[in-house]
Amino acid sequence: MALVDDFNTAVVRSKELTQRPSNEDLLKLYALFKQATDGDVTGDRPGGFDFKAIAKFDAWAERKGTSKEKAMEEYVALVNSLHQTQS
Questions:
Q1: What is the pTM of this model?
Q2: Which pLDDT does position 86 carry in this prediction?
Q3: Strand, coil or helix: what is 24?
Q4: What does the DSSP assignment read for 48-76?
């Protein structure tokens, strides 16, 4: 359960970043969080002009097949990396 604890701590720490991460890093955080908590993306890709929803869906879809544990590990590593670059 240490990984789950590390993941939950990283979720809290992600909200304590002093600078806003790049859009690319924000999409990675979103995709890894969704993969870790919900598993593979489901449903249809958003259409129309909702570019934010499309980008989020695509980022999550790129993680398809990644285990929840691997997604948690990558999420923790990314949050740690973002904290290191901001200090």
A1: 0.94
A2: 84
A3: helix
A4: TT-HHHHHHHHHHHTTTT--HHHHHHHHH
